[in-house]
Design brief:
alpha/beta, Arc Repressor Mutant, subunit A, 3 domains, Rossmann fold, 4-stranded antiparallel beta sheet
Amino acid sequence: MRAQIEQVPLIDIKAVSRSFPKPTGKDVVVLADVDLTIKEGEIVGLLGRSGSGKSTLLRIIAGLMSPSSGRAEFRGQSISGPAVGISMVFQSFALFPWLTVLQNVELGLEAKGVERNERRKLALEAIDLIGLDGFENAYPRELSGGMRQRVGFARALVVHPDLLLMDEPFSALDVLTAETLRTDMIDLWIEGRLPIQSVLIVTHNIEEAVLMCDRILVFSSNPGRVARELKVDLPHPRNRLDPAFRQLVDSIYTLMTQRAETRSVELEGIPGTGMGMVLQPVSTNILSGLIEALAASPYHGKADLPVLAGVLQLEADELFHLGETLQLLRFAQLSEGDIVLTEAGKQFAHLETDERKRLFAEHLLTYVPAIGLIRRVLDERPNHKAPAERFRSELEDYMTASYAANTLSAIIAWGRYSELFAYDEQTEMFSLENPI
């Protein structure tokens, strides 16, 4: 880590909250009372689940969005719009397809009014730094995903920002390409060759955060807030197999499953209760496969989450979605960085297909109120049909439209699998195929 200079911090966030209005008139709070300070010479990670408000906070820092309350400052000045000295790398490559690599990289300099020859000189330096020398005249369609993201980095670095913001910059890449780009960025940082003072990276990849960051802020969800700040004292370059590295990864998994376990007592393992329960549309095939894997050797009903994520090649966020769904349905329990099958989960693993569907249906009706409501409505109506909009509107009384859409997708998929109801995509209509 570079030597830090005691002065006004680059970023000072105090009690920042952000909410968005809903059609019902009640606001959805995405961020609540967030404090964050970034000093020169450090890489800071915002680590949390999808939907925890990390990207919203990043956009507030970038000046692309204003906080609903609280204070956001860059070098002691209030952030009231895009600030000179802050650049951003996005998850999507966000390149202009009709411009060459050189022209894409020059855009920021052109916007600042930099003279043409100087603009070209600086852009070529950035392209060379990021490992794309020789591709100046190529178009984005001629580049691989990793090369396109390198163009995104070069475009952000060419203006020599004080702070580089990165919003899940490696998540759209394949595993090998992401690892190569991550390693190249850290090497340039260690060597002092990056023309920046500090980095703030948003990620839901636990190992990525431990690999890259000096400090990690772990976000909780609904609303997003800083649950814990962790300092990473491991020297660069870091070895994923180092026991200290593995211990820190394990401790973060434990921290995040502790939160899930506490939430499960009050909120049944998933954000929200009753009709306000937010669901993720995870595949029943994958859920069944995970239960089978956990029941078999070498796990015999209990597995360490970091180990399981590595074996199944799943991001932590994906594994948490699966684990919390199984926890919601009482097929498994998340605790202290482990996932443990319940007796119902063990029973499910050894049932035939039809028996599995019946058990799944029983648990859906018992533990997912929205599915119980849909089934009751269908049972009570003479024609045993009901439009999706009837339930979508009710869900949106409790959550945002995007969460309601995800929740309804999960309900449809799980209800179909368990044969609790049918659903017609064309008419958007629920029905009972064989009403009692």
